[in-house]
Design a protein that fits this description.
Largest sheet: 6 strands, mixed
Radius of gyration: 23 Å
Number of domains: 2
Number of strands: 13
CATH architecture of the largest domain: 3-Layer(aba) Sandwich
Order of helices and strands: HEEHEEEEHEEHHEHEHEEHEH
Shape: elongated
Distance between the termini: 39 Å
Number of helices: 9
Helix content: 25-40%
Strand order of the largest sheet: 8-7-4-9-10-13
Length: 308
């Protein structure tokens, strides 16, 4: 499968994924650091103390106040990000309304693969560090964040060679990653979030507690959102093969849709309360269009906030 579609990448090539919060890094780049140094953008003055470099004295302030003040600056750094790719069994589902790529309808997992590959490519090309975690009930592979161009191949190989497998256990994995990711940055979750909502939100809050920014790409099939089935059918659990039920979907549609509505609402509200970006995505919509739309709106918002 060819993940880096040239047409898709062309739509997002000029759009930068810039962290809204304070980020930490080693190499001078375009993202704000919480640390003050003598770098790019003026932050504030502080009174001179013996040992300070006199080259950083503000002589204009001295001329007005007859006191010595040092100019401090905000350091610009690279963004460090980690993509968490859900490879649980439920991600295997392919709806009949799913968007097609090269004539092939995409499953939720394939859709997520394209999202992950495009974001990794985008961030590496803007000299940001990106890592990858694939998981189901546990972490399958943890690739630390790197910014080298050769690192992109490592990430893409892992994405391509990963297939959906077991049940979901999102919260324990998120808590684990929150403890491992010591440097603040951007956590990108790509998942259908089929797990206990309260536990998921608690785990996402763990990321925020550790000062990470969170971007949640919530991938669902259109059929999961609208439940269009209208005749007796056999429904099977993609995570537990033995779990099957035969029923008339018309009899359960109203209750099902209400549960889905509450599920999506609770996730969205929880993300809003913790200032995490929540992006609902239906596989009915082309992944490149959806991603380009989000990145454009994000860029507009970060400019409006002055990237603070």
């Amino acid at each position: 499968m060819r993940l880096l579609d040239p047409d898709a990448l062309a739509k997002i090539h000029r759009l930068e994924l810039i962290a809204r919060g304070l980020v930490e890094g080693f190499v001078s780049g375009r993202h704000r650091s919480p640390y003050k140094g003598f770098s790019v953008e003026f932050a504030e003055h502080r009174q001179y103390v013996p040992g300070d470099d006199i080259r950083n004295l503000d002589w204009r302030v001295y001329g007005k106040s007859d006191r010595y003040y040092i100019k401090e600056y905000i350091e610009e750094t690279n963004l460090r990000s980690v993509i968490l790719l859900d490879a649980s069994g439920s991600m295997r589902y392919t709806g009949r309304q799913a968007a097609a790529h090269n004539g092939h309808r995409l499953s939720k997992f394939e859709y997520a693969q394209f999202l992950a590959a495009s974001l990794a490519h985008l961030m590496i090309n803007q000299q940001d560090a990106v890592g990858l975690v694939t998981f189901d009930t546990k972490i399958r592979r943890y690739i630390p964040s790197r910014s080298r161009v050769t690192h992109l191949r490592v990430i893409l190989d892992e994405i391509v060679n990963t297939a959906p497998g077991d049940e979901s256990a999102l919260a324990p994995v998120f808590h684990d990653i929150a403890e491992r990711a010591h440097r603040r940055g951007l956590i990108i979750v790509i998942s259908d979030l089929f797990d206990d909502t309260e536990e998921i939100l608690g785990a996402l809050h763990h990321f925020r507690y550790r000062k990470h920014e969170v971007l949640l790409l919530h991938v669902m099939a259109e059929e999961e959102l609208t439940f269009p089935f209208d005749r007796w059918s056999m429904f099977r659990d993609l995570e537990l093969e033995a779990r099957r039920v035969q029923l008339d979907p018309r009899a359960v549609r109203a209750d099902y849709l209400e549960r889905v509505r509450r599920f999506v609402r609770d996730i969205e509200m929880g993300c809003g309360q913790m200032d995490a970006d929540y992006v609902p995505l239906s596989t009915k919509r082309n992944f490149d269009v959806a991603l380009a739309h989000y990145l454009a709106s994000r860029k507009t918002r970060t400019k409006g906030l002055g990237n603070k």
